[in-house]
Amino acid sequence: MKTEDFDKVLAEFAEEVNLAAKRTLGSRRIGKNRTYGVASRSLQKSLDYKISDGKVSFGSPLPYAAFIHWGVNGTRKNRNAPFSFKYENPSRKHVDSIVQWMKDKPVRLQAVGGGFIKKKGPRGGDRFRSAAFLIARSIKRKGIAGLRYYAVALESIVPQYTDKLGEALAQDLVKSLSFKVGNLTIKAK
User: Fold this and answer.
1) Tens-digit pLDDT profile for the chain (189 aa)?
2) What is the Cα Rg of the chain in Å?
3) How many Å is the maximal CA-CA distance in the chain?
4) Is residue 80 domain-resident?
5) Residue 187 belongs to what domain range?
6) N or C: which end of the chain has fewer CB within 10 A?
7) Are residues 65 and 151 part of one domain?
């Protein structure tokens, strides 16, 4: 059976699910902070899908995509995720990545007497590194909440496409039917 109509609707469905997942990744905001949780948008840009033999597979080639989707259990808080932090204290690489994040996002530390600590200067770097260590330790203790972007996308798009997919499959089925009566073969148009 040829499934031309079904394949067209399936491709449209897959594109809508992928766009909905990208919207879910790009819409994390807290209060007035529009870019909360969104640094380079590389995960959002990497989301893709493939269709083969009537099956659709969604995914991303980035190694951390699963951690963002499912989340990570902390050492003190369970997030019902398949991944877990093993040790409570962060490694040097973890602290370095938080320091880099603090540079990318304009994070400013407040001084005791008011004002802000300068990143460069006497003991400014040590205070930033200390704050990065505390942030990293908190992340390892509390874990990372999962943002099930594909699950959210499927929940919103599937109800819109159930009828369309069913009708397209039914049309393809009707097109493939043929009736043989004696020497005559009748095909539906």
Assistant:
1) 678 888 899 999 999 999 999 988 876 554 555 555 555 678 888 999 999 888 899 999 999 999 989 999 999 999 999 999 999 999 999 999 998 888 877 788 888 888 888 766 555 678 889 999 999 999 999 999 988 899 999 999 999 999 999 999 888 888 887 777 777 777 766
2) 25
3) 99
4) no
5) 1-71+146-189
6) C
7) yes
Tell me, yes or no, whether 174 and 108 share the same domain.
no
* Whether 130 and 176 share a structural domain: no
Residue 57 has φ and ψ, to the nearest 5°, of -125, 130
Structural domain includes residue 77: no
CA 140 from chain center: how many Å?
20
d(CA 114, CA 125): 18
Same domain, 67 and 150: yes
9 in Cβ contact with 168 (< 8 Å): yes
Whether 2 and 30 map to the same domain: the answer is yes
CA nearest to 165, candidates 7, 55, 19: 7
Q: Scanning the structure block, which residue is given the tokens 């990318």?
A: 104
Residue 106: its pLDDT value, please? Answer: 76
Q: Centre a 10 Å sphere on the Cβ of residue 81 and count the other Cβ atoms it contains.
A: 18
Single-letter amino acid code for the residue at 13: F
Provide the strand spans (E) within the chain.
48-52, 55-59, 178-181, 184-187
